[in-house]
Amino acid sequence: KVWDLSVKPTLEYVVPTIASVGFIKWRPQRKFHIASCALVVDCGVNVWDVRRPYIPYAAFTEHKDVATGVAWRGDPHVFLSTSRDHTLYHHVFQDATRPADKANPQGIALSCRMDVSHAYRVHVNPSRTAKLAGKLW
Predict the structure, then answer these.
(1) What are phi and psi of 92, to 5 degrees?
(2) Calpha distance 10→129 (Å, rounded)
(3) Which PANTHER family does the record associate with it (predicted)?
(4) Is 41 exposed, middle or buried (0-12, 13-18, 19+ CB in 10 A)?
(5) How far apart are CA 76 and CA 134, in angstroms?
(6) Which of the four, 26, 44, 47, 79, has the lowest number of CB atoms within 10 Å?
């Protein structure tokens, strides 16, 4: 959870993670990106976009044991991480895995009245869309 403590404590964002978070650090020059390390289980460092909290924006999985800290190098594309495996890694964003790119673009929901709803990706042909728009107006 991310709280605004400037006046009265207000909950700003919630990012669900698979394990308790042990360390966080805001990404420099990126208002909505935050890096996190888990206390147990997860050995990677995830960078989250708090506007899309259910899947990491970027993941760095080089450590063999739980990551313990993150230090940005002043550049939003470069940071260092430490781990219980006694290693220090220098990370560059172009090397990150992007979990959202591998996510399944379909979804399904079932209501308590047994109604089924689904969503899926539709590839739009721009020329066909323009023709349809012309017919509507």
Answers:
(1) -125, 135
(2) 43
(3) GATOR COMPLEX PROTEIN WDR24 (PTHR46200:SF1)
(4) exposed
(5) 44
(6) 26
Q: What is the pLDDT of residue 107?
A: 84
46 burial class (0-12, 13-18, 19+ CB within 10 angstroms)? buried
Distance CA 86, CA 132 (A): 60
Q: How confident is the model at residue 83 (pLDDT cuts 50, 70, 90)?
A: very high
- Please give the structure tokens belonging to residue 80: 């260092």
Q: Could you read off the pLDDT of 90-126 as tens digits, one per residue?
A: 999 899 999 888 887 788 888 888 899 888 777 767 7
Domain boundaries, given as residue ranges, for the chain: 2-102, 107-136
